[in-house]
Amino acid sequence: MKPLRVGLLGLGTVGRGTVDVLRRNQEEIRRRAGRGIEIVAAAVRDVGRARAWVGDAIPVTDRPQDLVRAPDVDIVVELIGGCEPARELVLDAIAHDKHVVTANKALLAHHGNEIFAAAQKMGVMVAFEAAVAGGIPIIKALREGLTGNRIEWLAGIINGTSNFILSRMRDTGASFDDALREAQQLGYAEADPSFDIHGTDAAHKLSILSAIAFGVPIRFDAAHVEGIADLAAADIRYAEQLGYRVKLLGITRRTPAGIELRVHPTLVPAKRLVANVEGAMNAVVVKGDAVGATLYYGAGAGAEPTASAVVADLVDVTRLHTADPEDRVPHLAFQPDALVPQPWLSIEDTVTSYYFRILVSDRPGVLADIARILADFRISIDAMFQREPAEGENRTEIIMLTHEARERDVNEALRRIEALDTVLAPVIRIRQESLS
After folding, report:
1. What is the spatial distance between Cα 252 and Cα 262, in angstroms, rounded to a whole number?
2. Are 61 and 157 within one domain?
3. Which member of 105, 205, 247, 287 is catalytic?
4. pTM score above 0.90
């Protein structure tokens, strides 16, 4: 049987990793797929640089439009990133009856509904395991392995850069800026790390996972997104003293009022496995009604971990290439006509627990005033301690953990607390999740 022919859009880190994995494991892949998979073309910006690496083994062009329309290409692998021209090229490939494999989470978060509808109409596949959590097969787990479950919630560390920074801040007491510089020096963070540290990258991935988990269209615009740039080493230290770790989590949960979709720094009990995921690693916890909580852990980025997911998608496409479109696993796990829009919960309507750090004047009655305001908004204190002021200081910090409360009530309570003349700075607030 003839091999399936692949055209690569991009020969960067992941593109090269894909070439290496396909070459190294070609016999194993053929045994699994039932036929060979070979790269017959690549489109790049810098042809000379690409040819210096691949030599004559792979024809290289700087005209991606020609590649996605080429009659001798069966599958287009999109690894260029960003929304444009990736969107245009992917839709053009689909229009020319080609299957697509992509690692582009931003593309799917913003244009996935359009792309999947076009693929459904043409009867071709769009595979995207590499778009979320690198080498962890979380898409396949949600689409296939957990298909007998009603997914209740999932929460994940799905950005390795942020997790590395938080790990260094906890391990060494480094400031955020120092930990970020170290991440950049080691190659874990880009020169412009904005998408990572502000939570955008994690929100792209979470919006895809949420759609697959709950059978809804992708809605990146519904996500509440906060990053880690404002976290202080003191909060990570205090969290540790209270038995928690601070992680940047993507959380999506099905509730009677709607679906939560949020990315933010989160206190997680140190006894949870996900709290102990360190460095640039990723992990996702999925709670199903039948299976309970399951954990998926591994490398969330890098040339070969991501290439592993790309090649797995190529094998899936090869296996199902001749199958009727109706017999394939739907792109978002649920049949296209069964994707049902649901209400999306505002962050103000979210109910969770909280950590507060409050800088106050060291004088009698301060704590009583704060506790009274919290009580007025039905926010009860779970744990608390007060830092002993240094000699000669007339101010101190109160650290609190609360029981569950509605975010709208918390916002109003904090506004009133910050208006007290004894409160000397804006209250530091971090949400807390038990993940139980």
Report:
1. 6
2. no
3. 205
4. yes
